[in-house]
């Protein structure tokens, strides 16, 4: 039985959420993230960019890993709703924290926010779920954090 014939598995979708944020936190190579995405119908509304293809994800990722360090994403309140055997909708609340250094500052600044993400997930030919679309709500800066845009040099765009 091919992966397209298998229904979406809720546990595997939760694993996809975990793997996505763990890869972001570790600053894994963009190829690790690309392996978690559906290559057809991809539309990710990410902080600072809308990604529709592999090159767009690579550019977004390069900017992110060169800007932020000590990143942590805590996905909580992960809700998976299987819409059909070949499609699940996922609602994820995410707490994101990171450090950023903007020259000529003497030290880094902590940034962070709370966001709600809506994902569309589909099973792929290997049977594993893939992220097809993502829309972010927020982020709302957390108390004691500098807003990400304020912490970045002008012209570099916004980040989560």
TrEMBL record:
<feature type="region of interest" description="Disordered">
    <location>
        <begin position="141"/>
        <end position="160"/>
    </location>
</feature>
<protein>
    <recommendedName>
        <fullName>SnoaL-like protein</fullName>
    </recommendedName>
</protein>
<dbReference type="InterPro" id="IPR032710">
    <property type="entry name" value="NTF2-like_dom_sf"/>
</dbReference>
